[in-house]
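Annex B. Sample input.
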Amino acid sequence: MDAWYRLPPVAAGKVHVRSNFVSSLDGAAEVDGRSGALGGSADRRVFRTLRWLADVVLVGAGTAVAEDYGPVIVPPQRREQRLAAGQTPVPPVAVISGSLRLDPSARLFGADVRPLVLTCRAAPADRYRELAAVADMLVCGDETVDLAAALDALAERGLGRVLCEGGPSLHAALAGASLLDELCLTLAPLLVGPDRIRIVGGRRWPTPVTMALGHVLEEDGSLFLRYLRR
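Annex B, continued. Sample output.
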């Protein structure tokens, strides 16, 4: 699996942003609010591989709360491989949140690897202080989180290979701002019906974003697609 998804080293001060999503044939990114119902064992292997290859896992606050995010689990052999490749043993999770509506007692903040919270200067001061006790706080923007500044802040920490796991609003914001370098998409052999969340959400873009197909893999009827930004 690594051979299909491995990335070359990223130059100092630069980032490569990769997103990972699963979708039904009719475009749904969730069933009853969760993405797990769409993916099978092969999708979970891709999910783990992409995490193990990343320097940092980036996620929006809404997704972190809805999916009850915890730390990235990396087995001992993988930790050794990461160390040999010049990476930290376990990639931290970085959460985007302007409002800081995050519970400092959530399991993500009890991890051995301290998470990052990317926020803005307008964030509530009391919530900032509470979260600063359990996470590394990075201020990236004034009234809202500036995504380009957030990626720069990650790059300054040597976290150049960024894996975005959503949600749809964050994914759309990155792609719409030309900050997304590739999309790894699992297409599940399911039709789940209308009125579902898609892999992008928010305001309409002025123009489409063009991607080039990198590869197609298949297992048990699911397609594993990798698209690169042109």
